[in-house]
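During the no-cost extension, the postdoctoral fellow (Dr. R.K.) reprocessed legacy sequence entries with the updated structure-token encoder. One reprocessed record is reproduced below for audit purposes.
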Amino acid sequence: MDADREVLIYGGAMLFEVARCDFAELADARGATFIDGDLIVDGWVENDGGVVFVRGNLVTHSLYNSGYLVVLGDLHVKRLLGHDERYGTLVFGDAKVDTVVLCRNHHFDVWGTATIGEEVSQDADQLDDVREDLRTWAKEQGRLPDELANLRFTPRHRAPPQRPNAPAPPRAAAPPRAAAPAPAPELDASVEAPVAAPAPSGPRSDVVVELERWFDETKLTQREQMAALRKDWIGRLGENDREEAKRLIKRAINSKKLATERDELLATLA
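Re-encoded structure tokens follow.
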């Protein structure tokens, strides 16, 4: 699972503190939306193409996400509708969802334990009707039960705070041999792990800057982006543009389903 820092800070960020509300429409055209704490919503939550980071739990009846939603804590929702594959829904805690509806290859990644009652595929042509049905259904559910509404985010794997003037703990004796490294956490199988790449050095050409802006703004799926790259972009790249273009393409086209096709495209820029 990769929460892309560049995406989260693109265009600036708005910070909010929300305890509990009846509904939440989170997308903000001015930039990313940060919720500092738990987001408890008695009705529905919608992120219509925005970039949203919740520093806590997200608890609600229904959730619609067509953008980039990162939940640092746990996700509790009865009905989740995920649309579009460009970013997805990332949960660093546990997720408990009664019904998950995913369309257009929307990524739903859970770092902790995922408890899913039912997973359904949905035709994107009926998206507006499904969203309206979700709102209506959520209104009918009334307020969340107390056991959900009172959930509070507890950070995991955090060292206990020390008193300001507390003496430093004694150093442990060196072990007789190095301990075996802990296994790496299991990542989502549908998305490649991010590949570290050096920052571009020197000025970039206009076509590279235009390509990066296109990746940031396009609403196309990754498969549609591949087709557009072949048709509209590859022929425009000069010899000095290729390394930076390869870095941008590999960062944007990160679906393992498209890895072979993407690598063949990158080979033409070698």
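The radius of gyration is 22 Å. Residues 206-267 form one domain. The remaining legacy entries will be reprocessed before the final report is submitted.
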